[in-house]
Amino acid sequence: MAYDKIIVIDRRLDHCLAYALNEEKTALSRALDYGMEPTKTRHLVTGVNCCPETACSEMQATKRRWDKRGGIQGYHIIHSYAPGEVTPEEAHEAGVEFARRLLGDRYEAVVSTHTDQEHLHCHIVFNSVSFMDGKKYRSDFQSYFGALRETSNAVSREYGLSVIEPEGGGKHYAEWKAEKTGRGTISGLVRQDIDAAIRESFTFESFLAALRRQGYTIKYGENVKHTAVTPPGGKRAFRLDSLGEGYTEADIRSRLAAVRSGEAPAQPDPPPMIPKRYRVRKGSIRQRPRRKLRGFRALYVYYLFLLGGPRRKKRRPPPFSVRAEVTRLHQYQRQFSLLQKYRVDTDRQLSTLEDALQAQIDALTDRRKELYSQRREGLNVEAEIAAINGELRQLRRELKTCGRIGADIPRIRQQVRLCREQEAPAPEKDRRIKKFERK
Q1: pLDDT tens readout for residues 384-414
Q2: Segments of 58-188 assigned E as strands
Q3: 415 and 319: one domain?
Q4: Do 189 and 151 lie in a common domain?
Q5: pLDDT tens digit sequence for 43-59
Q6: How high is the pLDDT of residue 147?
Q7: Is 124 helix (H, G, I), strand (E, B) or coil?
Q8: Quick one: 188 and 150 in the same domain?
Q9: Residue 35 belongs to some domain of the structure
Q10: Across-strand partners of 121?
Q11: Of all residues in the chain, what percent carry a pLDDT higher than 70?
């Protein structure tokens, strides 16, 4: 069974400068040196369209010939096998065949098989520029699952090795990452609205009507192959069969039938309330007067409540455009933490904070330049440089957050206005909306 992982060989600005001064000492050459390390390979090294000993210089010559020395320098594939499945020679032979089929007669590559781990694995380092026509290799979702994985599985089958068969349907990267980090997704909001529509419906037609009352656009009928719903204000339609188990048209009809037959309750029982415990203290307690938040901080507190706070049963949910902002909840929480840290409530205070952060960054950068000069003279200043780099990372992160706050404030005000117009009675609208528009 071969498992493949592809790594982009790139470099930062300082790597670009090193490349300009000495092009042989690039991230590409470091990857080649690591792949061909004698203590790991047992001489299992093969060049594809190049000689292993001169691979780096040949790849650089190809870049110069086609004038494509910038950007991504190359790619590094780690082609791994299950422990005990192959011998080192068989693993290397299969890895070379995989590289030849994948790269053909277009890219220079070096294949080296490492034997220092229990699981044998091949390192395939290849040039990003084709020596045939100068075109760059494109590494994306389609090339990985279309070319790389299919080629790897085909070679594994021919060599009698097991292959990795995917189970179930894949997820969009944004949804997968949101689940990993605990953030909400648009499809998750659509599922919530579908659940709410099922709770107040008994037939599929009444279910669709409930979604329409929520502002959804429905694509359904005899000539429609897949039922799809578009959330209010959204541009993308979601097919029901793409929302996961329990949300296909057949699953929804089964859930509605269970509600009609009494097998499942139309309204789920609320979770049991855990009683609060209080500690009684003797004597009087001196309480500090609480300052009322205003301006930006008050706006963010209310908006974070809309995105993540509890919902009252009789209160209408916020507009879908507001609930869709739950995907950026963590970003807004970081922005509020910065506002709270520096007590920023107005545009002027935000601008002042940006100037102060930039001044600190400039001062630390100048100090770091002096330390770099001292290091070139032989002085040991690594600890101080590391400390300054840590401070710079934090300051630049805060400066970037300030910029995002300035860009997000107008949209947050607009979203709050929509919620206030939906919640407040007509005579109270103007008074309640103006409260959150103060700077």
Answers
A1: 999 999 999 999 999 999 999 999 999 899 8
A2: 74-81, 109-114, 121-127
A3: yes
A4: no
A5: 688 889 998 888 888 88
A6: 78
A7: strand
A8: no
A9: yes
A10: 80, 114
A11: 71
Report d(CA 57, CA 51) in Å as an integer: 10
Query: How many residues make up the chain in this entry?
Result: 439
Between the CA atoms of 367, 369, 371 and 372, what dihedral angle is there, to the nearest 10 degrees?
170
**What is the tens place of the pLDDT at every residue in 307-336?**
875 555 555 667 777 777 777 888 888 999
Structure tokens at 79: 């082609």
Measured CA to CA in angstroms, residue 318 lies from 54, 303, 305, 311 at distances of 64, 11, 11, 10
Residue 16 has pLDDT above 80, yes or no: no
For the beta sheet containing 228-230, the strands, ordered from the edge strand earlier in sequence to the opposite edge, are: 217-219, 228-230, 238-239
- In this structure, the answer to whether residues 339 and 410 fall within a common structural domain is yes
Question: pLDDT of 156-183, one tens digit each?
Answer: 888 888 776 655 555 555 555 555 555 6
CA geometry: angle 287, 291, 297, nearest 5 deg: 140
Provide the residue range defining the domain that includes 324: 295-435
What is the full DSSP assignment across 314-360?
Answer: TSPPPPHHHHGGGGGHHHHHHHHHHHHHHT--SHHHHHHHHHHHHHH
Of 205, 236, 261, the residue that ends a domain is 261
The Cα diameter of the chain in Å comes to 87
DSSP output for 4-70: EEEEEE---HHHHHHHHH-TTSSHHHHHHHHHT-HHHHTT-EEEESS-GGGHHHHHHHHHHHTT--S
Contacts 24+ apart (CB under 8 A), 207-211: 207/252, 207/256
> Crossing angle, helix 295-308 and helix 382-423, to 10 degrees?
70
Q: State both tokens at 383.
A: 């600890």
Mean local confidence (pLDDT), 74-90: 85
Q: What are phi and psi of 291, to 5 degrees?
A: -85, 135
Sign of the CA dihedral with 204 first, then 210, 213, and 217 last = negative
The verdict on 189 and 319 lying in the same domain is no
The whole-chain average pLDDT of the chain stands at: 78
CATH code, domain carrying 49: 3.30.930.30
Helices (H) and strands (E) in the chain, counts: 17, 8
Tokens of 17: 């400068």
Show the 3-state SS of 285-315.
CCCCCCCCCCHHHHHHHHHHHHHHCCCCCCC
At 309, list the tokens: 């706070």
Based on the structure, what is the number of domains in the chain? 3
Query: How far apart, in whole angstroms, are the C-alpha atoms of residue 107 and residue 384?
Result: 44
